[in-house]
């Protein structure tokens, strides 16, 4: 067994929940979830997504924390140590590697969208949304997308912020910020849901989100829902393993996972309820794709009384939520580089950040001058997104849960989760069969 790290622990359960929520709640909830719902035809997707969260995401979240807490190390090393201790091949280490690579790939395009959010923060201050109709707002968006220099600026500033925070190692100092700003984001979403109720199209939105038309469901949609369950819970990248490695023995993994999952889900559904009334009220396209929140919400801000203030606050908080998630994407890459190379913490951060930034440039150019498909008919941005969400995250997560359910000793895991007899049976059923088979079935059916 390699050296055990003597890790510091989170100061309390609350601190850990805040850090986990900081990672899980981000662009995935507010930017990605609504547009995926729109593209996939609504409620059927939402319900499949909720099932994936409950029966696959939640157990895998617990599995990742458990591996992290037991391994007390970064994902690649944790998997190796635990596998060695259980007398299993070191190949399990690949699961950790694949996670680190995935985090790097996600960070590259995530930062591009973080840049959009920054630009929209500025645009709200300058009153760019005031009195605009759908066409005006659309032009604002297309103007941004067609301007590589502007996108590069946003992406660079966002990435610099991420690098700055991670390099200074103040990630944990963000706890108090998360504690106040996440609820603020929740409140603001409520205000926007309230606005949605005044549009006269709220009922339509609710029915679009919750009243399923199962005929629109395809294998591809189910895979998209599964992939997004991983994305939104920050699973399959070893990040939750890394967080788990700082977790004290006294913390109940199941309860904590339930809290985090509920918060993440509430924010995503809130975003959907805020956005779709505006879509219906203005006759916008449901399948607008990645631009959806950037062409709906500004429209509402432009028409509301205190629109400038609300718009500014919203995009600021969105940027903040994106930052706390992006930090959690860079962190494991940095830990890895720091450990495997002679580089210092700061240099490792800069090198990893610059790498992701460079790849992000290719992603942002795919929105304008380099829009030709590069592989499988997809541009760079879509390729990075699909490759990670639909393949890397579910596969890595699959191996993590198989590892906990089938490789680690069952009795130890039962005790660690504090399960009684019935609880242990449910856990065994879910972790050995439902979650892994769920991932496998979804994969096969979508091929
Ligand atoms: N969950 C974050 C979001 O919803 C994104 C994210 C952060 C992530 N860390 C991750 C996604 C790790 C996958 C893996 O915005």
Describe it.
The protein is an all-alpha fold. The chain has a single domain (about 15-445), classed as Hydantoin permease (Orthogonal Bundle), CATH 1.10.4160. Helix content is about 75%, strand content about 0%. It has helices spanning about 15-25, 25-40, 45-70, 75-85, 95-125, 135-145, 150-165, 175-200, 200-210, 220-230, 240-245, 255-280, 290-305, 305-340, 345-365, 380-405, 410-415, 420-445. The two termini are about 40 Å apart. The protein binds tryptophan (TRP).
Topology:
Layout: H1 13-24, H2 27-39, H3 43-71, H4 75-85, H5 93-125, H6 134-145, H7 148-167, H8 175-198, H9 202-210, H10 219-232, H11 239-244, H12 253-281, H13 292-303, H14 307-340, H15 345-365, H16 380-407, H17 410-416, H18 421-446
Helix pairs in contact: 1-8, 1-12, 1-14, 2-10, 2-12, 3-4, 3-9, 3-10, 3-12, 3-16, 3-18, 4-5, 5-7, 5-14, 5-15, 5-16, 6-13, 7-14, 7-15, 8-12, 8-14, 9-12, 10-16, 10-18, 12-13, 13-14, 14-15, 15-16, 16-18
Bound molecules: tryptophan (TRP).
List keywords for this structure.
disordered N terminus; mainly alpha; binds tryptophan; 447 residues; Hydantoin permease; 18 helices
Share of β-strand residues: under 5%
The shape is globular
Level-2 CATH architecture: Orthogonal Bundle
Low-confidence stretches: 1-6
SSE run: HHHHHHHHHHHHHHHHHH
Radius of gyration: 21 Å
Task: Give average pLDDT, whole number.
Answer: 90
The CATH class: Mainly Alpha
**Structural class assignment:** mainly alpha
What name does CATH use for the topology?
A: Hydantoin permease
- Assign a percent range to the helix content: over 70%
The largest β sheet comes out as: none
Report how far apart the termini are.
Answer: 40 Å
Q: What is the count of structural domains?
A: 1
Number of strands: 0
């Amino acid at each position: 067994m390699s050296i055990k790290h003597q890790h510091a622990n989170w100061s309390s359960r609350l601190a850990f929940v805040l850090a986990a929520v900081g990672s899980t709640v981000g662009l995935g909830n507010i930017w990605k979830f609504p547009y995926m719902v729109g593209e996939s035809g609504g409620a059927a997707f939402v319900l499949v997504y909720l099932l994936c969260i409950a029966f696959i995401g939640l157990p895998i979240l617990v599995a990742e924390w458990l591996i992290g807490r037991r391994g007390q190390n970064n994902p690649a090393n944790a998997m190796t140590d635990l596998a060695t201790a259980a007398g299993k091949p070191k190949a399990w280490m690949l699961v950790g590697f694949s996670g680190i690579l995935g985090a790097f790939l996600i960070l590259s395009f995530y930062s591009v969208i973080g840049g959009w959010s920054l630009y929209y923060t500025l645009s709200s201050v300058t009153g760019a949304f005031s009195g605009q109709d759908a066409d005006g707002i659309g032009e604002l968006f297309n103007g941004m997308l067609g301007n590589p220099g502007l996108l590069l600026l946003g992406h660079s500033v966002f990435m610099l912020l991420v690098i700055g925070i991670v390099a200074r190692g103040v990630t944990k100092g963000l706890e108090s910020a998360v504690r106040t700003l996440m609820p603020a984001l929740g409140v603001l979403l409520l205000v926007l849901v309230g606005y949605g109720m005044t549009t006269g199209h709220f009922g339509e939105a609710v029915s679009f989100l919750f009243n399923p038309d199962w005929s629109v469901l395809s294998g591809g949609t189910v895979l998209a829902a599964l992939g997004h369950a991983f994305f939104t819970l920050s699973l399959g990248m070893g990040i939750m393993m890394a967080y788990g490695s700082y977790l004290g023995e006294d913390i109940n993994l199941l309860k904590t996972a339930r809290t985090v999952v509920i918060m993440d889900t509430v924010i995503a559904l809130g975003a959907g309820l805020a956005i779709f009334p505006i879509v219906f009220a203005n006759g916008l396209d449901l399948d607008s794709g990645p631009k959806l929140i950037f062409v709906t919400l500004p429209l509402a801000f432009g028409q509301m009384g205190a629109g400038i203030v609300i718009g500014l606050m919203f995009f600021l908080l969105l940027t903040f939520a994106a930052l706390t998630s992006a930090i959690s994407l860079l962190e494991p890459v940095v830990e890895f580089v720091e450990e495997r190379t002679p580089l210092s913490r700061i240099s490792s951060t800069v090198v990893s950040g610059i790498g992701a930034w460079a790849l992000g440039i290719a992603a942002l150019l795919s929105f304008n001058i380099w829009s030709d498909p590069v592989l499988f008919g997809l541009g760079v941005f879509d390729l990075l997104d699909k490759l990670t969400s639909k393949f890397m995250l579910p596969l890595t997560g699959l191996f993590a849960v198989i590892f906990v359910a089938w490789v680690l000793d069952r009795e130890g895991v039962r005790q660690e989760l504090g399960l009684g007899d019935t609880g242990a049976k449910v856990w065994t059923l879910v972790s050995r069969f439902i979650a892994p088979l769920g991932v496998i079935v979804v994969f096969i059916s979508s091929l």
